[in-house]
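Structure ticket #2291
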Amino acid sequence: MTNLTGRMDDKERLEELRRDVPEKVAATDTLEELADLEAAAVGKQSVVAAARRSLGSIDPEKRREYGRFINEVASEISAAIDTRRASLEAAAEAAQLEQDRVDVTLPGRRPRRGSHHLVQEVMDEIVDIFISLGYTVATGPEAETEYYNFTALNFPHAHPTRLDTDTFYLDYGDVPEGVLLRTHTSPMQARYMEQNDPPVYVVVPGRCCRRDQTDPTHTPVFHQVEGLAVDENITFGDLKGTLAHFAREFFGPDTKVKFLPHFFPFTEPSAEMHASCFACAGRGCRICSHTGWIEMLGCGMVHPAVFEHVGYDPEAVTGFAFGMGADRFAMVRHGITDLRHFWENDLRVLGQFR
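Resolution: structure written out below.
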């Protein structure tokens, strides 16, 4: 601003500042321009600063009046600059707010929701059906002792499932019996009855492990829901009625069931329960392998030897037990042909059943 620093004496230049600067301040469009103008008008190298430095050389009688004049000019200029700065800041803030404005009437961005794994959903549904019948949910350790996994459930010592070719044994130090990854949730039958007097109505969902080769219908890790009912005068008819009700609740009210003889060490008599195919109503289709029936679970009346192991009197109580694979139920319910889809890290598989 050369026009602010001419060769006139300081007072004339101050008068020129007082006259010209307000117009120049009003003409600034940005805070940066205003800052430059402020530095030139009242900064360290300005006419105002030079006039103040010259006060020492002025006649003392005129110094006070001249100093007052300098302050008046500086105050007027600073006031004009402050007013303009406030206006520019308000305009800049308004522009920023307009740029950042959000239309609150638009739908918000919803985060993607997760969901339970399909097998977990099926286990929860199975458990809910039995809770509605008055059953209690129990859980047990996945690392189990050989006693609870086999012996207490009446498995003979020569049973092939005790071999390490069928079962995952753990190196658990110097213990008198083997420790293993449980092969079923049935050990909780013995554990629960040891800690609770009859009557007992309990379901046990959980993860199990066996030395199975991975294929479309087998994996070394699977999920099971075990059930146990112990009371006075429980019969096989109670077993059939309970499981038939479960099948209708899970697959639909028109589902029919049949029981085929089978063998399990911890039940006698034992059976497999089959249900009419929910997809074809028993006519035969791909889901039921064209038989019209779907194998659902194993079941039977609790063996008296199991009661003796846990301290129950087999002459006073009877009971039934059943076990079903949640993974298989999920496959059947949703028409999934390969069990391995559940464990592959492909969200598209799970996303289909959200």
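Closing remark: Strands lie at 136-137, 143-145, 169-170, 179-181, 200-209, 221-231, 257-264, 267-276, 293-302, 318-325.
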